[in-house]
Write a structure and sequence with these properties.
The structure is a homodimer. By secondary structure, chain A is α/β, with parallel strands linked by helices. Helices cover 46% and strands 15% of the residues of chain A. The first copy, chain A, has a 6-stranded parallel β-sheet, sandwiched between helices. Chain A has a 6-stranded mixed β-sheet with strand order 7-6-8-9-10-12, with helices on both faces. Chain A binds a DNA duplex through α2 and α4.
Chain lengths: 342, 342
DNA sequence: CTGAAAGCGCTTACAG
DNA sequence: CTGAAAGCGCTTACAG
């Protein structure tokens, strides 16, 4: 902080009666310093309450020990929890993070890549939302970047993602195992073959196929917002369509929470009339009533992997190895919304 | 970023055929530069894709344009939403923020104040949880700091806080206006006369008094965690106590969501048997079923005020004026948990 | 084992 | 209106 005139390496050196480089060496952990000298310097440091000026060190070293986390919106529990995991993982790795919210706005998502903060940072952990791989590729990014999250398209970048297909399939298989045969799907996206929505839809279809249940378009609801309010409307639309269904898989918990609210508002019983499952295992899934069955994608593991990969890329400097793709494990948290209260 | 050799002000100067200071001046927005020179420099900047090195600028200027936000835990919606508001407000103010999560852990809360990142930052927005004013005062903090949030104790620091008493009173008055006479209170804290819990409890008592209802200890549940899981247990405890009640005010929405779940699990009707209100107006309050009546404390206003105050302190440099206290406005969002479905 | 020198990229008085 | 100089606080070869 600039408020009070902080003491420098020179002040310490003067007090200790050594040159400033000796102080620097001690700070950097060099072995070869005479015990008696070391003690004098440490004394001076304590006496002056000296703290190294990180900015100066950064300027010299060309690195800052900081990474940026570009994330759409902390108001959404999934992102908030993911951010928390990233921040913890980064701290454990000796990095500090710098949260940039983009609102999933394409311009802001792009701005992060060129913004003034990208100067300050050794690398970027990037959770894209509305931007796609082509645009990203066209950016010709010249610093370490790792893509993170569920919306990762097939891309030439390092990325860490979820078992989208497998998780969705497991959830839908669970619904089917309960004897449900008319399973709706909320959260499909038009016009994409990649990305979380497409993969989860494929998982859904896989599960139906293995059970010998025909896929039906009228049970698939498009919703690319994946938020609580849109989940509520999507469920409203499904109910209004008059198509009968006895279960629903939602692409994330936010959708499921919204859909659940609409179902209960409409006087339906969950899971009696309709069983419902989500994806993400956010904390609100555990405290809704009924509590929500959800695919738990191992958020901490994901965050740690992403931070670790980014750190590796930073250390490698310019020399990029082959791009890497990491997929986390998952489990299915089975709760009241599919199996009822205990 | 350090990955590729970035061009400097000198490179630009050489290409443009001027001295590097001229480039610097143009960058800093000085008026006195000949039109023709300016064009040449801008050309060179574009041609070289020059971006100023923020670290160097910071070293020179002694400030970084960054602030730290020390916050307990993004997994809790209240904090996540507050963080989002702070980040937005900071961006509007030209500052970037740096999120430090403390887990409400006293050591980590203290560490933020001395940590290496406090070097990097022009000031700190501090959301304390377990730390109290005495400890903070003892720290002899020598940089701009603004306390933010609901747990602010009476202190010698600048702080921005919520209308704790008034908000709680309004919520309880609302419950009473519905004809409820046995209003429970969840979230009291033992041994404090200050802080959000004490103030909200006072608001509760005020509302009872104005209505001529006697205050009863057996309707007040202690809970200093203020999380969903603790709200669930607290409500469990209240039910088990056998004390009859027809309404409950919870100190925050997390408690209320947990309590609501317990009520519904127990087969009680909300608001038929028990009306329930919370505080914070987090987004999950709007999507529970029934949706939750809650005190809305004007989060954006709060965040903007806090960022503004901090920025002012930073600009004032060392010269601290009188400490300032800002209290946000509030409104009461009335929803199904007190008045039933529409 | 420790000192003298140069430089990271920028900005700010000082001249002209 | 634009250039030469010094310095922000640190680290890294280079000598000795």
């Amino acid at each position: 902080m600039a408020s009070t005139k902080a003491s420098t390496i020179y002040d310490v050196a003067k007090v200790a009666g050594v040159s400033h480089q000796t102080v620097s060496r001690l700070l950097r952990g060099y072995a070869g310093i005479r015990e008696e000298t070391r003690a004098r310097v440490l004394d001076a440091i304590k006496q002056l309450d000296y703290h190294p000026n990180i900015t100066a060190r950064n300027l010299r070293n060309g690195s800052t020990g900081m990474i940026a986390l570009a994330i759409p919106d902390l108001r959404q529990p999934y992102f908030a929890e993911l951010a928390q995991s990233v921040i913890s993982a980064a701290r454990d790795a000796g990095l500090t993070v710098f949260v940039e919210t983009t609102d999933g706005n394409p311009e802001r998502e792009l701005a992060v890549l060129g913004g003034t903060q990208s100067q300050l940072v050794d690398g970027v952990l990037y959770i894209p939302k509305s931007i796609d791989a082509d645009i990203l590729t066209a950016q010709n990014i010249e610093f370490p970047i790792v893509l993170l999250g569920d919306r990762i398209l097939d891309s030439q970048f390092d990325h860490v993602t979820l078992p989208n297909l497998e998780g969705a399939r497991a959830a839908v298989q669970h619904l089917i195992s309960l004897g449900r045969t008319q399973v709706a799907f909320i959260g499909a996206e038009p016009d994409t073959d990649f990305g979380a929505a497409a993969l989860r839809l494929r998982g859904y279809r896989n599960a139906l196929e293995s059970a010998g249940i025909a896929y039906r378009h009228d049970l698939v609801i498009f919703d690319s917002e994946w938020e609580r309010h849109s989940g509520a409307s999507s469920m409203r639309a499904l109910l209004d369509s008059g198509v009968p269904f006895d279960a629903v898989f939602c692409c994330n918990d936010a959708l499921a929470i919204g859909a659940l609210r609409t179902l209960l508002s409409a006087g339906l019983k969950v899971p009696g009339d309709v069983a419902i499952a989500g994806f993400d295992d956010t904390e609100d899934a555990r405290f809704s009533f009924p509590s929500l069955t959800s695919v738990a994608p191992g958020r901490d593991e994901l965050a740690r992997a992403a931070v670790g990969l980014l750190q590796r890329r930073i250390e490698e400097g310019g020399a990029r190895g082959a791009r890497e793709e990491i997929v986390s494990g998952y489990s299915l948290a089975i709760r009241e919304s599919t199996v009822g209260a205990a």
